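Repro:
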Amino acid sequence: FVELLVDLESQLATRRYVNLLLIDHQVLELCEASAWHGQQDDMAGTFRSLVALLRERLHFQVSDVSGLALTEAEAKDRHYARVTALQATAFCEFPAQLEALALASVASLASEEALARHLAPLDDAALRRLAACVGIRTRSILPPPATLGSVCGGDGLHTRAFTLRAFGERYAAESEKEGEADSASAYPTEKHVFPAQEQAAQAATCAMAALGYAVLAVPKLGLQFLTLRDYLARSFALLRLESAHDMRESIADAVRRLQPQVGGGFGGWARMALPVQALAMVDVQPPRLGERAPARVRADLSVDLAGYAESVRAEWDAEARPRAVLILAGVVPGGAVRCVRGCEVERRLDDTSNSPVLRLRVLLDAQQFHADATASADDVYAALNVVVRRRPQESSLLAVLGAVRALIAAPEPALLPAWLAPTFLGYAAAHAQPSAAPAGRVYFGDTFVSADHVREVIAGATFDTPFAKPCVVEFCSGGDGVRVVPHPSADMGPPVMIRENAVRFTAAQVAAIGAAAGEGLTLVVGPPGTGKTDVAVQIISNLYHAHPRQTILLLTHSNQALNQLFEKIIAVDIEPRHLLRLGHGEEDLDASERYSKAGRVESFLDRRRELLALVQRLAASLDVPGDFGYTCDTARLFFVAHVRVRWDPYLRRITTPPQPGGVPPVKASDMVADFPFSKFFADEQQQQHGNPVDRLLPKEGDDLPTAVCAAESCFRYIESIFDELADIQPFELLRTNTDRSNYLLTNQARIVAMTCTHAAMKRSELIKLGFRYDSVVMEESAQMLDIESFIPLTLQRSSHQLKRLVMIGDHNQLPPVVKHPDLRSFANLEQSLFTRLVRLGVPYVELNKQARARPEIADLYRFRYRGLGDLSNDSLQSMFAQKRNPGFQHTFQFIDTSPGAGAGGGGGEESEPSRYFYQNLAEAEYIVALYQYMRLLGYPADRIALLTTYNGQLALIRDVLDRRCKYLPFLGLPRSVATVDQYQGQQSDFVLLSLVRTRGVGHLRDLRRLTVALSRSRLGLYVFGCKSLFESCYELQTAMAGLLANGHRLVICPEERFAQEEGEKNPVMRVVEGVEDLGQLVYEMIEAHLPDVDDDE
């Protein structure tokens, strides 16, 4: 019941009605007065935590009328008004007894104890009378439950103590509960990592399981939030619990391996943890104005690596770098963890020589240090004797926690623009209309490949002029028609290779691209294989060309997805100097140039040398002596003194209309002869290795307008050289790479790409630099935590700069990864912002043509989407022309491996060597045997992926592959061996999938995971699992019915080969009875194959 009240108070629509009722009926006071609240059992602990959560919701600083967040001043005014009204009533009714209360300052009445002291002169009757005057209930409408009456001493429910508590709840100062996150540590402490109440909560959950519903005293992430501070406070609390859950296993494993000794010291060793040699505080800076915690706390940490293997020392040297997160733990003899603190590496103090001692300067959390100094008499930091390192990918949540804490301290109006904030909180429609045709002019650039393409995807499109790229589509108001007109573009000189779009976008894709062109929020739902990445690239390209002065921020959840998207952006018509890729993973980018900060700075300096050489050649062509290609400044002076003075008179002469009796009109032949830069372009033609540069020069046979246009085009090219040098000049003036990199980020880069984790890590730095952006494009947005999607929207000082937000994802595939099972299911932490907006009813565009898989494979997951069809074009028809996969009777099949179904080997039973580490040896052998069979038929290894649903099975499959395939060159290892979760966003021609479980369905019951599993293959899908188990699962019945359409026994055609263009019409088929049957066949094929293998091979 208390949980229901918390939920009702957490949403503005219900809070407006419930809040006054709960206050009037004194629900909070009744809960605190109950016998259950005072007990010490596990259920009582959960109940007390829920009551504390209810108090926080009741006193949350938000207006129940307007729904707006209250500022600190408004909250104080509301509190002062209540207290002064109480003082006025007290002075009127009891001037003698309550004179001190009436004359007291409001601040002196801030606590419940102070109010009780001032009300002490009143007897019980007078106290009830005062309560009635101010609207505090002194009798219950309904008879109180027996559990409540017993705590009141048998004198009824509304005793004097109860009434005083009611006064305290009504008039004590509102403690801004969400402000606790502002002063809380960004690193989980022992209270979060090893909480005493965790076992109690688990016991309470088990006790409530009989009711069919578990209750946890944690905030939830719903569809709506009271304010942005409410959203941030809930996210902070849940993320800290998730981070603590992730950290608990690391610390427990390290302590177990280190083996703390009773007499002190450690008897074991761990790769990820070391005993602390020394930890000394070296710098505690005074608090900033208006704050209590120190501005910064530094400490020197020393650990001894002597006696450790070289590989361990190398790992610590590599990962203990600046900004790395370390966990400090105080471990007592016996293995109990007394305290846990976090720190961040600022720099190394050692000289990285051969000394075995690693010395680090670390930054401790200032808020936690202040809390430790004021609340504890013991020196917590002296007890820290173990340091645990965490891999960078494991510390991402800590970076997000730090960013959330900084956001809570920021002024609320500055966090989101006005057009987005109401939609984000769940109370208004979005400022985008993706479900309807846009209005006005929309820049489509090179989205369309031809005029027929335009007519195909835009109904009623008309052309006033012949179709040309780039183009603009004018949507007439009132549905009067659609006009397609070319977008004017200046010829900038010598031709370059313009990389035009060659993708023939579908109508839904064009609708998504058009919706993203406007300002506001755009959601694009992309089922598997529908071209989400191509749509994202085209959106970015169009925004880049349509708004030359705007910056685009590109975000993904993973480095792999970011690199895939960035590689496609490089291939379109976008200047490389405007691209920047931040964060780790840039080294894996498949590109000829470097797009990191350092790489872009080097490219600018290289480009500077090239342009200055052009300037020097231009000076030589004009017979102007001097070294004008020395610096950007000398080049600028040369342009003003020598280029412009030649061009301006020439331009006036060729463009001035003839006057009667004046100078005769210029002839085209004279204009060509007098063109001042003919020699430069002739030389430039030689430098361009024969490119047709001379097409731009005025020609003898041209008419006058054509010649004038050619001359102006040539000068624009020359002018662009000096304009680009002007952009590069700051890199010449700035001397440090840091200054150059920062200038590049804030002034030159127009498309900045990073992961959402990197955005959280660098938020404070980006704001200090003055980073600005106008558009945000999020790919993989359904895989980001809600808060991970929010933080990148706050990377600039002014929220008014943000004009559009484009989110692309698929909420029907896997959600964000949350390891804590209770936070995933109960608190809804796995909900992404993209999913929440879709559930709120924000309009979205759903792509409806898939081009990844064969139609019969797509039918397996088609039921999950609205009208998902198949794209039909020549390339796909040729790819899917082969009706069968060589060597197989069916393009997809479910192969039953259940015990007693002929699986052989271990009987197909699942095993669990450790918790959640599920394995199935029979399936692992079966799936590897099928892989061997495919390789022996000639299938390329790089077109096959082996997937499974559990990490335990993944390890087992890799082990079997190493033993059976790795040492045979004609077999080798497949392209990918991964879990379904890891393989989201990727694809392979042929997928072999192991479902593992035989006793319980497990997490495959989540249809989103099944959708990902079935949609990874393009040409062939072969699923191994327990038929009786998965067929009986209600959630999987539709998909299983499709999988079982081809039977549950593997049917192969061993006489065929992969190189055949088409399988035989009547092939020799063989039904495989199980893993032993297939293994025997593979053995025979290998024996037959070995004589054909060269001795060297």
